[in-house]
Structures are given as C-alpha cells and as structure tokens.
C-alpha cells in the first residue's frame, strides 16, 4: 500500500515507519523535522510539511491508498494544528478519491474513569484536547472511510500484542506501547471494517 503519514517523526510515528517498512508499504512521510529521520530506516518519500498546505497535501495523495495522521492536538503556540490539518486533508482526500483515513486522538476527551485523573488531564491539557476534539468533529463529518483511534498513555518498549480496541468507554484504561499502537494503526489502515467509528484503545 501507498500510505501518507502525517506526524511521521513523533515517537509513535517512528515506530509506525519501522513497522510499515517491515510490511512492505510505500510510505510518504510528512514531518516538520526531517532531521529526526537521521539514523532510522528512511521512508520512501519525505515531505517537509505539517499537512496544512493544500497543494502539498494534494500532490502527496497521488496514488495513495490511505492516510494516517499522528498529529497531536495543538499547544499554546499552535493551538489548532490537528483541526486545521484535518480540514485540509479531508478536503484533499475527497478531491483525490482516497477513501481510507485513520487519525489519532486522545481517550481522556471522552473517558470518565478513573474520574479524578481524567478530570485533571482535561484541565492540564485543555488546549490540545480542544483541538483534538474539533479534529474529531471535522473528520466524523466528512464522507470518507475514517476511523478515529483514541489513545491512552503511551509507553516505550517492544510490541507485545497487549492492546485492545473498543467502541465503548473503558472501565479501566491501561497504558499501551508505541510499537503496539503503531501496529494497530497500520492494521486499521489496511482494512475498512472499522470505517466511520471511533475506537478507544488500551493496553490489555
């Protein structure tokens, strides 16, 4: 598959690049930090962009089978990164006829348990969570085969397969490794059974 990956040089993105290479996918990697690819297996193509330039996104989508966005919710200096990129990407995909879209979001946006930690996270990370929530709204309103993957706390370490996905709220959300997360995101991009759904992801 030819897969466009936004946020490719995040820690999870680097895990995804390695797993995609193992699976034989052709990756078009969007990043604002090309230097972060030094010393890692290079993707097939590198685009120095954050996914908000329509012309650049349209060009990258030529011949693509799927898009995976790992862009986080924006911070104080750039509070609308995820939402703005989602608007550009979904419009460009519709125009290019590329159907499959997988985007990452944050489980605490919807999570209710454990109650106090979720409340604290929403207070401390109000800006990125607001951006991620707006991104979800943009994606869920588009006419594509989209899947939202809401992540819990990410940890380093090898893939173990200890990861679960659910459309329902999680009774006891657990951390999950970036390697397992990357594999799960690629699994989602490779199929369309979860199209038009939001999945809550947890360690198992």
UniProtKB/TrEMBL annotation:
InterPro entries: NAD(P)-bd_dom, NAD(P)-bd_dom_sf, Polyketide_Oxido-like. It holds the Pfam family NAD_binding_10. Residues 7-191 form the NAD(P)-binding domain. GO terms for molecular function: biliverdin reductase [NAD(P)H] activity; riboflavin reductase (NADPH) activity. PANTHER family: FLAVIN REDUCTASE (NADPH) (PTHR43355). This is NAD(P)-binding domain-containing protein. It comes from Nonomuraea deserti.
């Amino acid at each position: 598959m030819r897969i466009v990956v936004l946020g490719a040089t995040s820690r999870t993105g680097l895990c995804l690049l390695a797993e995609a290479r193992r699976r034989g996918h052709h990756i078009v990697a969007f990043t604002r930090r090309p230097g972060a690819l030094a010393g890692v297996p290079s993707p097939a193509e590198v685009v120095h962009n954050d996914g908000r330039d329509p012309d650049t996104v349209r060009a990258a989508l030529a011949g693509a089978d799927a898009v995976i966005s790992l862009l986080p919710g924006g911070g104080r200096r750039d509070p609308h990164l995820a939402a703005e990129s989602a608007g550009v990407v979904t419009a460009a995909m519709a125009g290019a006829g590329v159907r499959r879209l997988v985007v990452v979001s944050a489980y605490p946006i919807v999570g209710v348990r454990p109650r106090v930690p979720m409340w604290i996270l929403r207070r401390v990370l109000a800006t990125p969570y607001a951006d991620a929530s707006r991104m979800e709204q943009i994606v869920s309103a588009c006419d594509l085969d989209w899947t939202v993957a809401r992540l819990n706390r990410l940890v380093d370490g090898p893939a173990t397969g200890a990861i679960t996905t659910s459309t329902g709220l999680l009774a006891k959300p657990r951390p999950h490794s970036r390697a397992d997360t990357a594999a799960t995101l690629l699994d989602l991009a490779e199929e369309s059974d979860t199209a038009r759904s939001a999945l809550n992801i947890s360690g198992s």
